Fold:
Amino acid sequence: MKRSLATILITILFLSVAVFAQAPPQAPKPGPELKRFDYFVGTWATEADMKPSPYGPGGKFTGIDRTEWMPGNFFLLIHSDFNSPMGPGKELAVMGYKTDDKVYTYNAYNSMGEADHSTGTVEGDTWTWMSNDKIGGKEIKGRFTMKIVSPTSYTFKYEMASETGEWATLMEGKATKK
Structure:
């Protein structure tokens, strides 16, 4: 009995040593899709014209975005301060890439109680972000398009689809890296 117990204990000891001797698992590494976000890292000044709509008055929009990689380089963090026709505000946004769906993600929350959840694609120098939201109880589709025009600037446009599917521009502007 003592001999079989000793054999079992020695076997468990050797198996434990073998398990713990294996190399620890490697931390995941960001995919090449995330390298595209390097363009956005830094401080950006935005200026835009907002069109009057049922969702708010028209007027000037200005903002400062401070963009940085979250440790690990899987997500980009954007801290924004802005002034809009509806007043000043702040926003926190997170950009990432969903590998399984092969789509970029953008999730933002602002001091006006708005939350934006968009998915994006990129073709050449143009990013297109699509969202489905509810405003005033109505389902609406949003499209935010960014066109890179230089290493330090891009233009953007935000559109919403009407109930008949026609797109209307609600904001157009430009961002410049400081």
